[in-house]
Structure formats: structure tokens, C-alpha cells
Amino acid sequence: MPVYADLDLHQGDDTTFRLEVLDSNNARKDLTGFSGAAKFKKTYGTSDSDAYSFNVTLPTGIFNGFIDLTLDGTVSDDIRAGRYVYDVFLLRDSFSEKILEGKLEIHPSVTPIA
């Protein structure tokens, strides 16, 4: 069953969410051989063509067991402020598991940074 969490970011900011993935023993899960996928969209019913993707990386070495979700500021700057829904999947071969879901709030910025 996926964990639920609300996330926040500001338009125009380079944002990375680092997620620690735990196994059934509450130890950091070995993610060797896994990849990840994460998207967000305005509502669950919004068409997939109108979804946005996070850049998903799974660090190695001492950071094995973590997933990084990144959204570049130049991308977030072009997304309308508001509340979105998102989810995160772990993938390996034909296996997929939803590990996280929730709401993503994108806050507007007043001062543009060039």
C-alpha cells in the first residue's frame, strides 16, 4: 500500500524531493536494479497527455534506498500554480509498485529571478 504525503514547491525553483524507501522491516530497501517513475496532473481524471513528469533518479552507494524526484525551475515556472495529484512508482522488469501518492501544491512566485 502506498504512503500518502503532501509536497510543496514554488514556481521557478529547482526542486528535489529525496524519498527514503523502507522495506517491511523498516530498513532502507535495496533498490539495486530498480527504476522509478513519477507524474503529477491537475486531477486523477486529467488526460495523461496533460500530465507532468518528475525526473526520477535512484542514487547508488551510501544513498541506495533513496529516490530523488526533481523538477527544474524552468519547467515549474511554466506550470500554473495550484494543487495537483501525484504518484511515484518503483519499476523492475514487469514489476511495478506504487510507493507514494498525494497532493502537490505549486505556489506562485512574486519575484522572477533571471
Task: Give the helix/strand layout.
Blueprint: E1 3-4, E2 7-10, E3 15-20, E4 35-41, E5 52-53, E6 55-57, E7 66-71, H1 73-76, E8 82-92, E9 95-107
Note the main sheet.
6 strands, mixed
Average pLDDT across residues?
93
Class from secondary-structure proportions = mainly beta
CATH superfamily: Immunoglobulins
The total of helices stands at 1
The tally of domains stands at 1
Order of helical and strand elements: EEEEEEEHEE
Q: What's this model, at a glance?
A:
This protein is mainly beta and 114 residues long. The chain is built from one helix and nine strands, in the order E-E-E-E-E-E-E-H-E-E.
Question: What does this molecule look like?
Answer:
This protein is mostly beta strands. It has one domain (3-107): Sandwich (Immunoglobulin-like), CATH 2.60.40. It has 1 helix and 9 strands. The chain has one helix at 73-76; strands at residues 3-4, 7-10, 15-20, 35-41, 52-53, 55-57, 66-71, 82-92, 95-107. Strands 1, 2, 4, 5, 8 and 9 form a 6-stranded mixed beta sheet that branches. It has a 3-stranded antiparallel beta sheet with strand order 3-7-6. Strand 8 (82-92) and strand 9 (95-107) form a beta hairpin.
